[in-house]
Amino acid sequence: MTIFQRIRSVIIALVMILSGVLMLCLPDIGYAVAALILSISLLLYGIRTLIYYFTLARHMVGGRGILYIGIVVLDLGIFTLTVADNMEIYILLYLLAFRLFSGLVDILRALEARRYESPGWKSKLAVGIVNILMALLALAAGIVFRSEELLVVLYCAGLFGSALARIATAFRKSAIVYIQ
User: Fold this and answer.
1) Average pLDDT, the chain
2) Three-state secondary structure readout of 150-172
3) pLDDT, mean of residues 135-164
């Protein structure tokens, strides 16, 4: 990881912590902030993926898959932005389903890292399991209690955990591979 990537990672983590604190301190607008963060991040990721496709990936094997991912993520970002003011509980459940999917991807990456005997696979596995448990707990709380405040609190807890993991990754020493 380069110095610029480390600084960017720490800044993103600090923004995540700041938005989590804002959502907890101002519960009336906590939902709107969460939906706005999700929609902006999906829009930016979709745009970045499409730019990557048009600049480089269209010449690669599997580049068309990158195009499809960029289009789907961009559409999800636009959908989230347009529906944000109408269906509050569904958008929060959508946020938590996104965290569930992220946890599943973390677990799959950890299992792949274990297969290649990477030293950090246990922490990746733990982060994935915690993400899935938080998402399932919040999903149950949202369906049973129908409480937006509880969902915001659980989402903020997951946001804080992700931010701390991002900061820890930014300060972790990178391995340098030498080819002989």
Assistant:
1) 82
2) HHHHHHHHHHHHHHHHHHHHHHC
3) 78
In the predicted model, what is the mean pLDDT of residues 64-84? 87
Q: How far apart are alpha carbons 38 and 169 in whole angstroms?
A: 22
CA gap 164, 144 in Å, rounded: 29
Q: Give per-residue pLDDT as tens, 21-35.
A: 888 888 777 667 777
Cα 131 from Cα 110, distance rounded (Å): 13
Within its chain, how far is the Cα of 35 from the centroid?
13
For the chain, domain boundaries: 3-170
Q: Is the pTM of this model over 0.90?
A: no
Helices 27-55 and 3-25: crossing angle in degrees, nearest 10, is 150
DSSP letter at 60 equals S
Q: Return left, alpha or beta for 2; rule: phi > 0 is left, psi -120 to 50 is alpha, else beta.
A: beta
CA distance 170 to 105: 20
Judge residue 127's burial from the number of C-beta atoms within 10 Å of its C-beta, 0-12 exposed, 13-18 middle, 19 or more buried: buried
Sequence-distant (≥ 6) Cβ neighbours of residue 103 within 8 angstroms? 127, 128, 129, 130, 131, 132, 133, 134, 135
Tokens for 100? Answer: 């569930």
Contact 13, 58 (CB under 8 A): no
CA pair distance 40, 87, nearest whole angstrom = 18
